Structure formats: C-alpha cells, structure tokens
Model the fold of this input.
Amino acid sequence: MRTPDTPGWYVEDDVAASVKKARKSDTPISSIIWGLEAAFSDDTPKERIKRIVESIPDENTQNGNTDLPLSQPPATDAEPREQPARIISIQDISYLSPREAARVIGLTLEQFDGNTVRPRANDSAACNLYWRRQKSTVGIRIIPSVGKTVTEDDILPLKEGKTSIDSVQSPSQLAAVTNGKFSEKAKNTVEESNIQWYDGGHVEAWFRRAKIPPGALGAVLENGENHQGPLDELVDISGIANDISLDPFESSRVIDEADLSRGSDLGSPEKGSSNHRSSSGGESRQTGGSEHIAQPDSPSKGGETGTLYADPSEDGDYGALDRFVDGIGSDSSSSVSSQEQNGTPQDSSNQEKTTPGDDSAEDESEYECAICGATYAQYQNYSAHISRCTGDSPDSKASSQNNARDHKQDSDYECDNCGATYSDHQEFSAHVGSCKGGGSDSETDFEWNSSEDISRKELLFELIKVKSKAGEPVTRRDLNNYGDYGAPQYEKEFGSIQEALDVANMDFAGDQS
Amino acid sequence: MKPELREKPTSVPQPDGKSVELDPRLPWPSAYRGSQYSIVSHEDFNDPVLKWEQRDLQIYTKPPAGLRRVLVLLGKEGGYGSIRITAAGEILTKVPAEDYKHIDKAPIDSGWIPVYVGKLRGDIDFNEVDIDPVVPSKGRIKVWKGFPFNHGERWTISSDGNLVWKWRDYRFESAFDHPELVETYQQYRGRAGRLYITENDHIWVNVPRDDIGAGKETAVSNAVSKWKQEADNEGDNATLRLVNRRLVATSRGDDPATGHLPIHLGQLGHFDDGVIPRPVVDDQTYFQAVCDYEEVWE
Done:
C-alpha cells in the first residue's frame, strides 16, 4: 500500500524493479534505502534494506556475467540423452513385508498371465499370493530377504501348513519365491514336497520382462492392501506383449545363484558385471555388527576349485569378534575362568568330527553314532557301541573316562571332551558329568547340561532305536509307531522332524503319517 | 611347487626308543592322525577333487599328483577316499582289510587298516583359504588363517607340560621333548588344551578370551584387530568366515564371543630345533580300535 512517503520509483511488490528504476533516475543509494524503508510497512531494519539494495545487480553488471566460464558451450545442437526407464528390481523387494512383496510380485505375474488374489491379513494361510492362471491356480509363499538365505524353517509352513483360502480354488501347485536365495536344505525340502522354488535370479528375470515402473510399485504398495481385484487395476502399465509372454515359471534365472547373497549391488541390470565378482576378488565387507558374509553355498556347474563354499545361515554373529576383543581381560561372571573355579571348566573339546557329508565316508562308514559321532562300517560294532555310549553298560563313555584316568600313571585327570585337567578326582568326576557333550567328541551338536538338553538326548536315543527297527529313511509314522515319543515331540524340540533327523544324521522320508 | 605324492620311506618312532623305517603302502604302525581331506568325485567338477569339509563348509582343489593312482593300487576303489596328512607330510589312508594286499603285515586283519601311502611334496593350494600363511615373527602371534577344523595333528598339552596325542582313552606321548613349544603354548593359554600341527609345520591353538595367558591379552587383542582389518580391506571373506565358525563351534552358549579364537603360534622351526612331535603307540589294542572305526577322532 502506498503512503505519502512512498517514492515515485517504487514498484509495488517488486523491490528489484524498484531499485533498478531508482538507479535509472540516478537516485542516490541513501535515498533508495530511505524510500524503501518508507515503502515497507513492517519495520524492516535499515541495514537489511541496505544489503537487499546492494545485492540487486544493476543491468550493466548482469551483462558482465556472460564472461564466466561455463562447463559446456552456451548452446548446443545435441539432443538431450533419453532418460533410462527405471524398472523395479529384486533390490526393491528386500525391505518389503511379505504381504507387500506379494503384491509387487503378484502385479508382475499378472503381466504374464491371469490375475492374483492375496489373502486377508488375518488369514493364516501359508501362501501370501494366489496366482490364478488360465488353467491352474498357484499358491505362492513370498519370502523377502535382505541378504539372508531362505532356510528350511521359512519353507516349512508351505509344506505343513494350510495352503488354501476360502475365496480361491485350492491351488494345484505350490511355489516358494524369494528375492534372495534358498539354502540347500530348504531346496531339498521343497523338492521333496513337490513345491517349486524361484530365487532372486528368477524373480529378477520376471521383473526385467514385466518392466514394472516405480510408479506402479508405489501404487500397489499404497493402494493394494485392501484391493480385492487384480492388481493391474491399480496401475497403468502396458503389460507384456503376447509374443514374448513366456511362462515365468519356465524362465531361467538372470543372476547366478552364487551371486545372490551379495546384497545391495544386485538386481540392477546396469550393474550386471559387478554381480559376477569373485567373493574373494576385492569385495570388502566390514564385519562389525551382525553383518553376514556372502559366499556361495555349493559349487555351481563347472565348480571352481579354491572357493570356500558355505551356507551363510550357519554363520555366527560377526560382531562376536569385536566382543571377543572387548571381553579380553574382563571379569565376567559367566567367564570360563570363574566357571572353572567352580569345577566346570569351559575349555572346549575342540575336537572336530568328520562330517557325514564327506564323500569318502559314504563308502567307508555306514553307521554313525548320533551321540558321539563315532562311525562304524559294521552294524554289529555300531550296536555294541550304542549300548556303551548310551550308558547302558559300565563301559559307558563317561565311565570309561574315569576308568582310563584310574589306569593313568599321571596325577592329573583330563576331560576327553574339553581337555580340562584336574588334580582332584572328585572334581574331575563332577566335571565329566557336567561338561558339554558328557564325554562326547562332538563340538556343539549337543548341549547336555540342562534338563531341556537331557530331553533332547533321550529323543536322539529314541531315533536310533526307531531307525534300528524301521530302517531308513525314517517316516513320521515310524516315529509314532516305534519310538517312545511321537513325532510332535520332535517337532517341539527340534522345530521339525527333518531337523531332528539331521542332527542324528538320518534320512527323512517325509510326512507319511 | 605343485603337490605330488612321493613314494619314499619314512621313519616312525616305536616303543622303547626304537624306530622303524617304513616303506610306502605298508600298514601304519603309529597313531592315525593329521589333516583330513578326501578325494572325491563331484558332479560339478570334471575331474576328481581333493576336498576339505566341515559341516556346510567345503572347498576343493586338485589332488596331489600321483595320489589317486597309489590309492587305487592300495585297494581304494577309484582312488577315492579319506586321507590324513601328518605334520611330517606323511599321507595316510585306511584300506578295507579284504582289499589290502599287505594284510599279512598288519597287526590286525579285519576292519579298516591304516596304511602309509607316501610323502607329500609341494603345497596343496586352496586359493581362498591360505593353509600356509605367513608365519608370525618369533615370539609373536597371529590369528590362524588356515582351516580351523580337521586341520593338523591334534595334540594336547597336559597340565604337567607334556605333549600328548590322544584318541578316545588312548594317550600317546611324543617320542621327543618339546619344552619350547610347550612353554609358548603356556604363555598364551593358561590351562591344558589342544595344539594343532599342520602338514606345513604350522602350529595353531585355541584361546578363549577368559583364559589368555597373563600379559598376553594385548598381543591377542592386537593380533585380532590387525587380522580383521587386513581381512576387511582385502575382502578376505574366507578367513573371516572360518574364524567366525571356530568361535561359533567352540562357544558354550549363543554368543560366539565366548568361543575360542584360533591363534597361530608359528612354525615348528621356531621351537626345539624344529623337531616334529611324533606319538609313540605303546598300547597294541589301539590298532584294533583304530581298525574298527573307519572315521576316527584324533
């Protein structure tokens, strides 16, 4: 609003134009400041007005800016580079919930064929996506993964749980899908159960073919939770041309399985070359905290020598190294030393057992004791050992330890399990009873000390009995018929029958109840 | 040098201060011990491979030249099977008694007969896992970067300072004295425990954080920090994983930090004029026991 003091060069609401107009009429700067001060009705400090005026370039000065060096010619005939169309990749799945991931993969599958149905949040179905294809319905369990291998436990609901919901025809086919990779055990489990599996390499192939733009991803994430119909009703995407719409379940993976654990650098076609770095090829991983290390878990076709294959899910927390260092010299109440003073020395056995998977062992050992790992070529020897090892005879492992010590000339008593030594036989005997493994040569396969562990031990003994009566592979029915404990007891203790049999190195025939 | 089998005799200590000069392919008159490998056929490899394995961990390489041939001649079908390599580089295997040509020379004529195959010459190379790592300077230590399972002869330092090879209830002391080796062990480990000697003469031990020898805490701590930094920088995932697994395997609860750290003490040449410990089997029942079991604990 103009006041009587507002100068004539003042342009309403345009300070820059006002200043330039004042300069044109050779108005002194002090007068410009005074004029603006009068024009502003908000008590703007004079110093601030002065800075505003000084910061407004006059027209002559502006022209001089054309001499500033530019990073490129002021004008070019070149066409701007076309922006690459971004499409979603398996990386985008990593941090989604299973339900969200199911929507994204559902949308993707709809581009190939049919439509999808997602169970309601309160449905307890093992499948979180149903793909209604032209001639069949597929129940799918989507398992998002952040650099973690999908384990057998992740799969088991699909095998043992409810796979149908009321609103969809019961699936004729089941599939497990992840953006990561499956452990060997998980793969074995699904294959035994006639469940198909598709890992990140496959899913990435689907994504690259379906070309889902990020906008569509956002739409199904934001609006898909309560949407009952096909997901492509929520988005405007072109779909896949019929002539290239191959069955995604028959497409090959576009990322090698061995490269799937590498985490953040996966999933982008532009980074394809980086997906094939050797795990030892300068890929630096900080191992603080609980990060995991990528490593292939088995040789691929044309396997490579000199590569350490591993199941990353077997790794321990890598932050342990730091804690180990931090704990050096600390006086922990749970420390080995303090426990040793109480007569339960913690020096581990450090005795490694040969693993049943040793190919050479396959042709040379038939029977392996689930308690101590000793293997036998002949069943007779094995049976004799079992009776000793289970403590049925005075020649049990723990007893034999004591006997051995009694025969010793030396004055010390040394635990065969952990190597701890005692000069006092009473202390030694107390230790033998409580030492991990109870004289077992295994490292950490069994924990015997707690009452819970004793129960596990008994269960394993029973497995041996069941096997001797029913033979291998062991079925669920065998456990129920021949063991003192039914199959549910093993599931409760070990998580699954398969896990229990794995511990005992026995084969499982499946759920033939 | 690429590894190869040399069929040459070796000297094996016997009771009463004696020793026997043993030709290849004859029954092994001592403790069945050493690093454990297998020659296997694997569908993903065109040729048979030498495998090291511990549970889910596996790594493969080419077998020493000439080894399969001799294993076949010994009665091992296809030249496949499990072998041990002692600290002196002696390759041992077990042959089914019924297939073994020299069964008449064995103390036991049934089961699986331990046999001396020959000597390893050259180095087995597992690429990602360095089983012949740089040795720490004398008086210093490093974190052990080789295999932390099934690797090396497993000895025990008893509380009275003897080096004892044990299996089940059998205890066989070394034919030689090893005061420097034992003393070094005791500097880093307060209590009796295991000590491993590999075919490359490396010595590694397990050290729990609560049983580090007095005054050696900083040395252990520094060794871990340095090793970890190097492994991180070099992207040496294999060693990070192996050490992690050792901690996991030897921990008592869920926390691997309570486990035992594999520490590299050095090479045999640093101790006792390089004398290789060799157990003297003075209990003949051991041979019966070891023949009864194909897979043995060492």
